[in-house]
């Protein structure tokens, strides 16, 4: 990991980038339960199976098939595989299946950043990205010369945009980079994000990267 500086990129503290605790290195992201997606898929499957079962019992009881059953049977008998509606329906079903597979294979909960833990008996902890952004923004505003600051934290990168109220922008940016480097180490994250700092002066609005 590195932290942007006026002269380019400078290496961040080793303690923040490569924790020497084995359990911290092995920490993984939190997995979402996907309750909404699972409930929706189960609801659709149960509704379709229930309708087909009811229709089959209804027909076996000596009644005529309902109009929707007859219409579906006629459509399946008349339409060929190269029909536009058949291709479109197949594409939609495939897209929904791929979406469900993607949900099953990805952890989700992107807003949670795993924290490094030690001797906790298997207990895991995480920091919300908005909380991490708030902590970095507070550290940025505490830097002399910084009048305003905005921070967006992702899983691998944190973007900091600051407005210099007074002082040399280059010196303010160097102090800001150092201050954020220390604060980033205090977050206690397993994989601290790389911090990109951009500053601009308040009067001219010129940006230094």
Automatic annotation (TrEMBL):
Location of the DUF6286 domain: 95-200
InterPro entries documented for this protein: DUF6286
Region entry Disordered, spans: 1-21
Keywords: Membrane, Transmembrane, Transmembrane helix
Keyword Membrane among record annotations: yes
Keyword Transmembrane helix tagged: yes
One Pfam family cited in the UniProt record for this chain: DUF6286
Name the UniProt record assigns to this protein: DUF6286 domain-containing protein
Organism expressing this protein natively: Streptacidiphilus jeojiensis
Taxonomy of the source species: Bacteria, Bacillati, Actinomycetota, Actinomycetes, Kitasatosporales
């Amino acid at each position: 990991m590195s932290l942007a500086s006026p002269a380019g990129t400078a290496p961040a503290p080793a303690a923040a980038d490569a924790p020497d605790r084995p359990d911290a290195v092995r920490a993984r992201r939190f997995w979402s339960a996907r309750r909404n997606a699972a409930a929706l898929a189960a609801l659709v499957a149960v509704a379709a199976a229930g309708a087909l079962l009811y229709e089959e019992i209804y027909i076996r009881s000596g009644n005529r098939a309902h109009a929707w059953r007859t219409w579906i049977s006629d459509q399946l008998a008349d339409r060929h595989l190269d029909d536009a509606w058949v291709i479109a329906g197949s594409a939609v079903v495939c897209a929904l299946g791929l979406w469900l597979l993607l949900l099953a294979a990805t952890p989700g909960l992107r807003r949670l950043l795993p924290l490094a833990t030690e001797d906790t008996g298997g207990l895991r902890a995480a920091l919300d990205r908005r909380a991490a952004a708030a902590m970095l923004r507070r550290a940025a505003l505490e830097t002399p010369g910084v009048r305003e600051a905005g921070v967006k934290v992702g899983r691998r990168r944190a973007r900091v945009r600051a407005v210099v109220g007074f002082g040399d922008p280059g010196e303010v940016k160097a102090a800001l980079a150092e201050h954020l480097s220390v604060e980033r180490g205090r977050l206690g994250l397993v994989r601290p994000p790389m911090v990109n700092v951009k500053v601009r002066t308040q009067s001219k609005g010129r940006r230094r990267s």
